[in-house]
Predict the structure.
Amino acid sequence: MSGTNAYSEHLKHKEDQLAIQYLPAVKAMSFRLKERLPSSIDYMDLCAIGTEELVKLARRYDDSQNDSFWGYAKTRVYGAMLDYLRSLDMVSRSSRKLIKDIDNAIELYLADHDEEPSDAELSVMLDVEEEKIHEARIASDIYTVLPLDDQLGTPEQEGILERIEHEDLIEAIKEVLMGFDEREQMIIQLYYFEELTLKEISEIVNITESRISQIHKSVIRRIKDAVGGR
C-alpha cells in the first residue's frame, strides 16, 4: 500500500471511529423522537437516517473549525430525522381539511366524555371511511413533532414565512402565547422547547394525554390564525 493510500485509510478509520463514538447519542436521540411519534414510525428507520448522517458528518468534520464534534453534528443529525418525517407528510389540502374536522370533532367529544373517540366513532360522526380517519390521524401526529415554522407553512397559511423573517416569527409566536393561560403556555414550552412526550407532560400538569393533545392543537390553530393576519 502506498503512503498516500495508507494515510487515506488512516483518516477514514479515524473518521469512522469518531462516528462510532457518538452512535449511542444518535440511538438515544432516535428513541426520544420515536416516543413522540405514532407507532407506525419505526425507531430503526429513524436510527438508520441519523447514523447515515452521523457518518457523513464525521467524514467531513474539521476539528480546527469546531472543537466539539457532537456540538457540530447534533442539530444536523436531528435535522436529517425531521427531513425524513417531512418526506412522510404528504398531506393534501383535502386531507388537511379532514384533519381539522377530526380535531374539532375530538374537541367536542372530549368535552362530553373526557376521552378521545375511536377511529370508528369518528368515522360515524364525520361520515368518512374509517381508514381515511386513521391515515389522517397518523399524518397529524407526525406533523405535530415538526418545528412551528413547518406547521405555520401549511397551504392555508401560504406566504406567511415569506412575509415574516424567522426572528419576527418567533417574536410573533411569543406575543400570541402571552394571551394564553399559564397551562397552555406550559404545554407548548414543554412540548417544543423541552421536547417532552405527552405522557411526561401529563404527569406534570395532571391532565390526560388526550386533553393535552387537543390543547396543543388548539393553541397551534390560534397561533396560525394570529400570525396569518400579520
The chain has three domains: 3-88, 90-142, 144-230. The longest helix spans residues 93-113. DSSP finds 13 helices and no strands in the chain. Confidence is low (pLDDT under 50) at residues 1-11, 154-164.
